[in-house]
Write a structure and sequence with these properties.
The complex is a heterodimer of chains A (491) and B (333).
Chain A lengths: L3 H23 L1 H8 L6 H7 L3 H26 L3 H10 L1 H11 L4 H25 L4 H25 L10 H4 L7 H20 L1 H9 L1 H6 L4 H23 L4 H15 L3 H25 L5 H19 L5 H30 L7 E2 H8 L3 H13 L3 E4 L4 E4 L1 H24 L8 H7 L5 H10 L15 H7 L15
Antiparallel strand pairs in A: 1-3, 2-3
Chain B lengths: L2 H4 L5 H6 L6 H27 L3 H26 L8 H29 L4 H22 L8 H6 L10 E4 L2 E5 H19 L1 H9 L1 H6 L4 H42 L3 H26 L3 H33 L9
Antiparallel strand pairs in B: 1-2
Chain lengths: 491, 333
């Protein structure tokens, strides 16, 4: 039951959030009255969580971060990211209708209206895609903008009403976390629990339906039901997040944490966990930042916190980060360069039948067809990695035992591979060098053993040069121990 | 609540007749602005639809906001506080620079995320435009004194204020409010560019490989199209806002695509759609007393729904027709 572990961890994390934030929120009013009089720094007020409004806002932001992150992960892996965008704009007429129905900013009425509008929006997208030849992008754009236009007309009509002017319905466009009340918080908690429970219980079904719908159908999963259940949950979490993030930017809370998590891991259950955590952190961070300024909107700041985390993941993720990959590429390129120098030193020694251990910079430069400066730089690089020592008096490098071992391995890899290509793949001997040049740096010990076995422990490569074996050379030791290169090879 | 307070009675005199008679000097400009915006957006949007990039319109229309905010900020720091006297030309050029810059940055950022990581294009679009839009909103809130933009106006535009903007006078003639004049130029250029570069645009839309073999550099065409999209969106921005402009980009083309399939007729139908939706939208808004730009889009969406219903009915009839005909019995060999 290995995959259960992280998801259990997630449930635990969620419980912790509840314990920490909901428990004090229950007796918020009392504590708020006690400390309300003293003038405090905004940040300190936020961090000490003395204000009930702060606690509501923070708890709400974190809960919405969790539910949006979890469900957004499914959107991102199913390439439905912009469905979240369309859905979040499409709820606006529902918000307005819910407001009209209940006459006040009753969270429940608005919730029901918005969920219905959101689901209607996804149905219309499906309908347009299935019955016309319009493509998905056009269908999404149509629903997004069409529903939004109806919503804007309704909102402007409501604002004209005597009851509507002070309703704060326009707060739904950009979000205001400070306006989160106890009923909003209850709604958010219910949605977060529902989303987490659904993901935990139906993890396998959601996973299979997301990655291989045809297979899911073939083993009898109701793929359409799963899809629309996901959309329903999504509508729930979008609507519960509206109060804090606003219609326009709630889609970012779905996409950004999940996309960051997608860069951090290859396993779905870890991605879910990371997405929930990143959502939580960006919610809390956005809430904190908006509290610092006087009338900073919460939604944009949450989105920006999420984007900052995404940027960090985009640049520094351990496997997929841009900087990480550039760094790995650079270090592997410099390793290849270093190993080539090492090989050259060995080849020079081999050509003079291992008379004299030292290889002068001039020899190195001539063999590699480079300037003395380049050869010098490469020799320094060898010294830095402990593969050789440099003797300034003679301007020559001397391989250390480690460097010698590595050089022999490289030459052996190269020649074994050449032999294998001519033997097993019947490639002419003059065509195998380039390929061996590349593979010599990456051949593992196991593969080398297997190559040796298949080639009957041959000791000569296709060009007639000996294939060295590290142990034999080590046993034989250097032929001559003088450091000086023989006459004619020095400077 | 009784709906009568919400939906006013339909007064023929004030809703249907007045805008064409006594109020025409004011409503005419709104109509013209709506029509021009819709045509320019519709024609550019049609190119996006052909390239299946309708949601790039979504992305760019959102990211125009930080572009405008930054441009206004820089301008106000460079030239000092904006005075009351007219700076129409300067404002226009500042807006254009900000918009084109924002459009190109968006395109490049989306491409960067999409190519340099395993994030898919749709998620990349979602991340980039939301981030830029959020930056824009924060900039506007922080520097409200320096930025001549208003968050509500961004969301649904103020097409109703168009007639009261300063008028443009040139060669001794009164040419009308500045936004309308600017939109007219943009629309004219859009139409001309589509006609003159028809071949390049269409070939690079349908077959980038063929375009390259004919010496048309498809990425350049793409970048130019995105730049022009930014220009159109920014000219429409003041009057219809960041989100309704997406509808103006997509709805006319999508409606036309349900009716005809040849490109020239598509472009003609887009003009017709724009005319009908702006007139119907104005009347709707006067009746319901709501956002005019919103109502114009609602009218356009109603036209789309009509076209879609007709399309679906015709399709159903064709299918019934096919089923009704008995399959030819296979002749034994």
């Amino acid at each position: 039951m290995k995959p259960r572990q992280p998801t259990a961890l997630l449930a635990f994390a969620l419980l912790v959030v509840f314990a920490v934030l909901l428990a004090p929120a229950a007796e918020a009013a009392k504590i708020g009255e006690l400390t309300g009089n003293s003038v405090r720094d905004q940040a300190l007020r936020f961090l000490t969580l003395r204000d009930p409004a702060v606690r509501y806002a923070l708890a709400g932001s974190m809960l919405l971060g969790i539910s949006c992150g979890l469900l957004g992960a499914f959107l991102v892996v199913r390439r439905l990211a912009l469905v979240g965008d369309a859905l979040s704009h499409a709820v606006l007429p529902g918000v307005a209708a819910g407001f009209l129905w209940s006459q006040t900013k009753d969270p429940f009425a608005i919730f029901v209206g918005a969920v219905i509008a959101g689901l209607l929006g996804t149905l219309v997208v499906e309908g347009i895609k299935q019955t016309t030849r319009l493509k998905e992008d056009a269908a999404l754009g149509l629903v997004l903008a069409g529903f939004y236009a109806v919503g804007i007309c309704m909102v402007t009509m409501i604002q004209r009403l005597p009851t509507g002017a002070k309703s704060g319905i326009d707060k739904f466009l950009f979000g205001q976390a400070a306006a989160i009340g106890p009923r909003d918080l209850q709604l958010m908690a219910v949605v977060a629990v529902l989303a987490t429970a659904t993901v935990l219980v139906f993890y396998k079904e959601l996973l299979v339906a997301s990655f291989d719908a045809a297979f899911a159908r073939s083993i009898g999963y109701p793929v359409r039901v799963i899809h629309y259940s996901l959309m329903l949950l999504l509508a729930f979490s979008v609507v519960s997040a509206l109060q804090a993030v606003g219609v326009v930017l709630v889609s970012a809370m779905l996409i950004t944490p999940a996309a960051a998590a997608y860069l951090l891991t290859d396993r779905m259950h870890r991605m879910l966990l990371y997405a929930a955590v990143i959502g939580l952190v960006s919610g809390a961070l956005g809430c904190f930042l908006s509290f610092l300024g006087s009338n900073l909107p919460t939604g944009p700041l949450m989105v920006l916190s999420g984007s900052a985390l995404f940027t960090a993941a985009f640049l520094f993720a351990s496997r997929h980060g841009v900087v990480t990959r550039w760094w790995n590429h650079r270090s592997s390129a410099s390793r290849v360069r270093r190993e080539n120098t090492l090989k050259t030193v060995y080849r020079i020694l081999e050509d003079r039948k291992f008379h004299g251990e030292g290889v002068s910079l001039r020899e190195l430069a001539e063999r590699r067809r480079e300037t003395i400066e380049d050869a010098n730089r490469q020799a320094r690089d060898l010294v830095r990695h402990g593969l050789a020592t440099f003797h300034p008096a003679d301007l020559c490098v001397l391989l250390t035992p480690v460097g010698r071992q590595r050089a022999i391995e490289l030459v052996r890899n190269h020649r074994l591979w050449e032999l294998y290509l001519t033997h097993a793949a019947h490639i002419p001997a003059d065509h195998v060098h380039e390929d061996a040049e590349r593979i010599e740096h990456v051949l593992g010990e196991d593969v080398v053993r297997e190559l040796e076995r298949r080639l009957n422990y041959a000791d000569t490569d296709p060009h007639g040069r000996p294939i060295p074996t590290p142990n034999a050379i080590q046993a034989a030791g250097p032929v001559e121990t003088t450091r000086r290169p023989p006459p004619g090879y020095g400077l | 609540m009784n709906l009568s307070t919400l939906i006013p009675t339909f007064d023929v005199q004030s809703v249907v007749i007045d805008p064409w008679t006594t109020d025409f000097s004011e409503k005419g400009w709104i109509l013209l602005m709506g029509f021009l915006t819709s045509v320019a957006c519709g024609w550019v949007g049609q190119h996006l639809l052909l390239r299946r990039m309708a949601l790039m319109g979504d992305a760019i229309s959102h990211s125009i906001l930080p572009g405008l905010a930054t441009a206004f900020l820089v301008a106000s720091f460079l030239f000092g506080q904006r005075s009351e006297s007219s700076h129409a030309a300067r404002d226009s050029s500042v807006m254009l620079i900000g918009a084109i810059g924002a459009g190109w940055i968006t395109t490049l950022l989306i491409g960067l995320i999409h190519r340099r990581s395993r994030i898919k294009q749709d998620a990349a679009i979602g991340i980039v435009f939301a981030t830029l839009f959020a930056i824009g909103v924060v900039l506007i809130t922080l520097f409200a004194d320096h930025v001549d933009l208003d968050a509500d106006c961004v969301l649904y535009g103020e097409i109703g204020f168009v007639p009261f903007q300063e008028t443009l006078r040139a060669f001794g003639l009164t040419l009308g409010p500045v936004p309308v004049a600017r939109m007219a130029v943009v629309t004219l250029l859009t139409v001309l560019a589509t006609i003159f570069f028809y071949k390049e645009l269409v070939i690079s839309s349908f077959d980038a490989g063929l375009a390259t073999s004919l010496g048309i550099h498809a990425p350049t065409v793409h970048l130019l199209l995105m730049g022009w999209l930014s220009v159109v969106v920014v000219s429409a921005f003041e009057s219809v806002g960041a989100i309704l402009v997406i509808a103006m980009l997509i709805v006319p083309g999508a409606t036309a695509a349900l009716i005809v399939s040849r490109l020239p007729s598509l472009f003609t139908l887009i003009v017709l759609h724009s005319a009908i939706s702006s007139v119907a939208g104005l009347h709707l808004a006067l009746w319901l007393d709501c956002s005019i730009a919103g109502a114009m889009v609602v009218a356009g969406c109603f036209l789309f729904t009509l076209a879609w219903a007709t399309h679906a009915l015709l399709r159903a009839r064709d299918q019934r027709h096919l089923i009704a005909q008995p399959l030819p019995t296979p002749t034994p060999l």
